[in-house]
Specification:
Largest sheet: 7 strands, mixed
Number of helices: 11
Distance between the termini: 28 Å
Radius of gyration: 20 Å
Helix content: 25-40%
Order of helices and strands: EHEEEHEHEEHEEHEHHEHEEHEHH
Shape: globular
Structural class: alpha/beta
Amino acid sequence: DYLPFTDSTKLYSLKEDSSLKFSENDELPVIDGATALLPVYCSFAQTVYPKNTKCWAEIRDGNPLIDYGNKAQAVIDYSNTVGAYKALINGERDIIFAAKPSKEQLQAAEEAGIEFNLTPIGYESFVFIVNSKNPVDSLTVSQIKDIYTGKITNWNEVGGKNMEIRPFQRDENSGSQTAFLTFMGSDANILPPETHQVFGMDGLVDVVSDYQNHKNAIGYSFRYYIETMMNNPGVKMLALNGIEPAKENIQNKTYPIFDTFYAVTVKGRESENTRKFIEWILSEQGQEIVDNVGYVRLN
């Protein structure tokens, strides 16, 4: 639904001609990114790249979901946050679109003798989700932290039913796990994730929506992914401190957790077209796409 140069209605198209347009003869920046940002960077690509640009996306068993060319020749790729950072470090990508890197990803870059260049291109809210049948609709930031440090262990302590809380976490180095650790703070004694860890954002949503087995679960992700990309009626986003994670509440900065997402490159390795592309993303047209896809523009 979100891949460029298809009949997708999920991507945003400008009403006027783009001020930047690459041709088939141009050296095209190879791009990749996080699951939650697929709609925005594919909208960028559909606007600026030529229609015959080779793309590659995979499903979990490694088979091509859609293939416009050989994987090794792909200019637009999708391999999620972990894969995208790894490919950028290895020199296989020119730009990735993701949340800020984890400590491990920064260390891997240092060991490879490179340094990331992070260009902010928009904002998104970080949200906590529970099963839609859970009567709890809002928690405070401190209650969330107490849940994930084991100080609060039962939903009846926060206005819910008498059942144990199962606080799920994401896999290491994923974008949402890095955002979660930032939210919790470096001094937090977070519960070990081993028994309640889920790989993939879709996997986490599936777990939380499973009322029969996980009606007591809590997890986290990014607003747009939950609200629009997954749109699973079995989960709901919690208000924090009484503020809903709505787009307008990110814009007016009343929702307490919002995260910056970036165009990430390697310092000193940016081509002229890579720089042009990022400059265009920061322009009015690029920011119009960020806003109209459903994220929050910088200004």
